[in-house]
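Consider the tokenized backbone below.
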């Protein structure tokens, strides 16, 4: 296991963002020649849902970078003392994710495992029990399309437990992450779902 920020951090430029001009990642990250974003798709207390974009932004960020994103570029210290407006946080996640995607170019793929869907993130010390059954495993070369497909499958599910996840997504304005991600060129919300047996 490589702790990417064990020897400090480096900044990736954020192009076209309105909150972040740089995204801080571990100093080891530029040593990698390919990135697989393997996410457990689920709800999230702050973002509404956690998928490819959340994992690529918060997941790859250094310790400082996590504070930078959570505070929408206001602090590298304790973000909980300086939380921004909700949409500013969501937009900052998309901006940070875009910096990673641009750094990688074509050398990145996104896979989301939508199982044991709780309204809380795996990073929560005491997450809610799963509210929905398994949806499946999805993959894409577009993180916006992948997250949109996962949220669409939640909404279309016949599992009654989906009401909890939908409430979490909508109460946190989570779909704005995808709207803004599309706006800044991170990806597209349009996709074709191809089922493999």
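A designed sequence for it:
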């Amino acid at each position: 296991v490589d702790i990417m920020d064990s020897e400090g951090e480096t900044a990736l430029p954020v192009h076209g963002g309105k909150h972040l001009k740089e995204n801080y990642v571990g100093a080891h990250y530029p040593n990698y020649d390919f990135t697989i974003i393997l996410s457990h798709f689920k709800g999230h207390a702050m973002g509404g849902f956690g998928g490819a974009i959340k994992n690529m932004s918060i997941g790859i960020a250094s310790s400082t970078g996590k504070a930078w994103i959570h505070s929408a570029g206001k602090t590298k210290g304790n973000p909980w003392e300086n939380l921004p407006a909700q949409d500013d946080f969501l937009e900052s996640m998309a901006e940070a994710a875009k910096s990673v995607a641009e750094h990688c170019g074509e050398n990145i793929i996104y896979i989301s495992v939508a199982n044991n869907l709780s309204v809380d993130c795996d990073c929560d010390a005491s997450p809610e029990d799963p509210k929905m059954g398994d949806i499946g495993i999805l993959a894409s070369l577009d993180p916006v399309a992948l997250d949109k497909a996962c949220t669409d499958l939640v909404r279309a599910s016949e599992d009654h437990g989906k009401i909890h996840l939908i409430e979490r997504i909508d109460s946190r304005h989570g779909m704005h992450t995808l709207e803004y991600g599309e706006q800044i060129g991170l990806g597209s919300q349009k996709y074709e779902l191809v089922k493999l047996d």
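Helices lie at 52-57, 63-70, 86-104, 143-156, 162-171, 176-183.
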